[in-house]
Amino acid sequence: MKYQFWFVAGSQFLYGEETLRQVEKNCAEIVAALNAAEGIPCEILFKTIVVTHESAGRVVKEANYDDSCAGIITFCHTFSPSKMWINALANLQKPYLHFHTQFNASIPNEGIDMDYMNLHQSAHGDREHGFIGTRLRLARKIVVGDWRSAEVQARIGKWQRAAIGAAFSRSLKVVRFGDNMREVAVTEGDKVEAQLQFGWQVNTFPVGELAALMEAVTDAEMAGMLAVYGQRYDLETDDAESVCYQAREEIAIRKILAREWAWAFSNTFEDLYGMRQLPGLATQNIMADGFGYGGEGDWKVAALTAIVKAMTFDMGGGTSFMEDYTYDLAAGLSLGAHMLEVCPSLAVDRPRIEVHPLGIGGKDAPARLVFDGKAGSATVASLVDMGGRMRLIVNDVVCVEPVAPYPNLPVARVMWRSEPSLELGAECWLLAGGAHHTVLSYDADAELLRDWARIMGIEFVHIHKGTEPAQFEFALWQADRLWSHV
Question: Are strands 292-294 and 264-266 parallel, antiparallel or unpaired?
Fold first, then answer.
């Protein structure tokens, strides 16, 4: 889907036709500049000037029913009385950004007169508009600043990505091969509530069907998949049978995902009926093409991985399913990995295909990609079901080069330092109920994830450089009390 965002200006008839013509001209110039900006990933369409109750209602109704419209951006160039926006905004079903800007960056010394004042009124026109948004309890993004500013443009672009994530979420299907790992609490959750809140369709498909599709893979299909592996990765194993088995698994998984129009899936080593290996290389290569995955049947993190990948589709930093595996307490670092399934988009160098025993599950040794993750700023995010509500927990981290080569650890891995530190970050993570499964992203920062959480109407928790555990715990307590009354 090629998404657009509608730019809707606010004004009124009070100032005359000449002023409205100038408002239209100025807004068209603002929109053209935004569309030319590097930080804007999707087209912005200057849609209309709202001057009456009817015109406001008409444009919102059109936006709600246009699948290509991913959100609206409002800007009150002049004073636009907010009572005429009430019915429209009360019915708005698309993400909403209130852009508080002004056509001229500076006040002209000799050019300012009453005509100028009547035209350039966003300083109080947008305050009227802001009031009605708050009075209606609307979840919205507010961006303030000069429309020419690269920083302002980047914030609008970031919100666009969150809105794309919301649109993607509302049509997302998640395929579960088997159930989640036995006795694990955090991989459970209310799938009905998830569909109401996020739009996800989460359903189980039999592992036996997957095994049957594997048996039907043709030689031509196998050759094609092996060619993809050769183009993307270095083969460092003589065990061709294991690599071929992973290719067979991948082809079968992709067939079911394509048939169901699904962009995320999960499985567990406890349910591999009819299969000799847990999908490792297969899962990693599927994730490399934008799909989400969750280990041990964790459908929530599978969906979140797919959504973050959709929001950051062209940014190039990398996003993956991840797990906090073990600590280097002396260095203050976390080692993130999983048994097999970390996306190669995180790799600092060309990944290697290797075959090693898994050490769990009692199955054959699977082929997998082995690599180290890149250094750089990132986030780890966890979506947890708090019973009646969802909570998105985000921790700012700094990924670093591994402190040792770990020659006997044949997995894809990333090392990072949590903000504000390993100890304080982990303490706050545990207080918030963060899961051991996460999404690690070099591209999606806390602002982008907060924007998405706001659009989806869920709780957002941020652990960052300035987080202090006592204040953090009090904020969680307040949030629990607030949400218990919603």
Answer: parallel
As a whole number of angstroms, the distance between CA 1 and CA 67 comes to 9
Contact criterion met (CB below 8 Å) for 443 and 373: no
pLDDT (tens digit per residue) in 67-124: 999 999 999 988 888 999 999 999 999 999 999 999 998 888 888 877 777 768 888 8
What values do phi and psi take at 390, rounded to 5?
Answer: -105, 145
Whole-model pTM above 0.85? yes
Nearest one of 459, 246, 211, 478 to 358, comparing CA atoms: 246
Angle (nearest 5°) at CA 240 between 236 and 245? 115
pLDDT tier, 263 (very low <50, low <70, confident <90, very high otherwise): very high
- d(CA 269, CA 246) in angstroms, rounded, equals 15
The mean pLDDT of 328-345, rounded to a whole number, is 95
Q: What mean pLDDT, rounded, does the chain reach?
A: 94
Mean pLDDT of 259-287: 95
